Amino acid sequence: MSAPDRPSGSEGVNRPRQDQALLAVAGLRVSYGRIEAVRGVDLEVGAGEFVGLIGSNGAGKTSLMRAISGVLKPAAGQVRFDGAETTGLASHRMVARGLAMVPEGRMVFADQSVRDNLLLGSFTQLRRDPAGAVAEQDRVLALFPRLRERLDQEAGTLSGGEQQMLAIARGLLSRPRLLVIDELSLGLAPLVLDMLFPVLSELNRQGLSILLVEQMASYALAVTHRTYVMENGRVLFDGPSAELANDPRVMDAYLGRRAS
Ligand SMILES: Nc1ncnc2c1ncn2[C@@H]1O[C@H](COP(=O)(O)OP(=O)(O)O)[C@@H](O)[C@H]1O
Ligand SMILES: [Mg+2]
C-alpha cells in the first residue's frame, strides 16, 4: 500500500491559519432519541485546508457530518459556514452556500445513468449559470475519465470505485467551497484508493477545502494537513497530520503499529 504525496510548501501544514474558518463547529450535539451520538464537538476547517477525521466505528463521525451538512438537525451547538450561522439549515441550502457532501455509502441512483446522476449534481448551477455548469461538467469529467466513458451506463452497474468517483463528481458539480466526504475508502481496493486520493489532493491544491472522514487512518494522515480523532461522540485531540502519524495514541489505536 502506498500513500500519495502529502501537500507541501506554502500549501502544506505550515500554511498560516485563517482568521476566520470556512467551517466552524462549536459545542455540537446530535441525539437519536436517548442515544447521544455527538456530545459537544468543536471542529474547524480553514479556507484551503484539507482536514481529516478518524475514529472507530460508532464514534459519531457520520452523525457529525450529517449535522454539518444539514441532513439532520443538531440537538445543540452551532455550525458556521462561510461567515454565517447555518445551524439547522437544510442540506439543499447548504449546497447552495457551497458545502457539498459525499455521503457514506455513496448513495448514487443505481437505476439511473451516470449522466443523469451528474445532472442532479449540476441542478443549482444549471439554473444560475448554464454555460458554467457545462464547463464544470467537462472539468470534472476530465478528473474522472472512466466516468466519461460510462455516461450512458446505469450507475448501479459501476464498480465500487467508479461509484465513488460518481459521488465525488456529483458533489463537485455544485461548485462547492467545502467538500465533505464520509468514508472515501469503504469497500474499495488499495489500487482504487491509490488513484482516488491523489485526485483529492489535486482538488485541494486548486483551492477546494476538504473535510475527509476516513477509516483508513494511514491514508487520511498522509494526504491531509490536519486531523481530528473522535471517539464516543467527542473529539479526543487534533493536530498536524504529520505529527499524529507518529503519535503513540494514534499509532496504537488506528495504525496498528506499536509506538517504540
Ligand atoms: N439513525 C440512527 N438511529 C439511532 N442511532 C443511530 C443512528 N445513526 C447512528 N446511530 C448511533 O449513533 C452512534 C454514532 O454512529 P455514527 O455517527 O454512524 O458513527 P460513525 O460514523 O463514526 O461510525 C452509534 O452508536 C450508532 O449506533
Ligand atoms: Mg460513519
Topology, pairings included?
Layout: E1 23-32, E2 35-45, E3 50-54, H1 61-69, E4 76-81, E5 84-85, H2 91-97, E6 99-102, H3 114-121, H4 123-128, H5 130-143, H6 145-148, H7 160-172, E7 178-182, H8 190-205, E8 209-213, H9 217-223, E9 226-231, E10 234-240, H10 241-244, H11 248-254
Parallel strand pairs: 3-8, 3-9, 6-7, 7-8
Antiparallel strand pairs: 1-2, 1-4, 4-5, 9-10
Helix pairs in contact: 3-7
The protein binds adenosine-5'-diphosphate (ADP) and magnesium ion (MG).
Quick description:
The chain is of the alpha/beta class and 260 residues long.
What features would you describe in this structure?
- The protein has helices at residues 61-69, 91-97, 114-121, 123-128, 130-143, 145-148, 160-172, 190-205, 217-223, 241-244, 248-254, and strands spanning 23-32, 35-45, 50-54, 76-81, 84-85, 99-102, 178-182, 209-213, 226-231, 234-240.
- The chain starts with 22 loop residues before the first strand and ends in a 6-residue tail after the last helix.
- It has two domains: 19-98 and 177-257, P-loop containing nucleotide triphosphate hydrolases (Rossmann fold); 104-175, no CATH class.
- Helix content is 37%, strand content 23%.
- It has 260 residues and is α/β, with parallel strands linked by helices.
- Mean pLDDT is 89; it is low at 7-18.
- The radius of gyration is 18 Å and the shape is globular.
- The relative contact order is 0.19.
- The structure holds adenosine-5'-diphosphate (ADP) and magnesium ion.
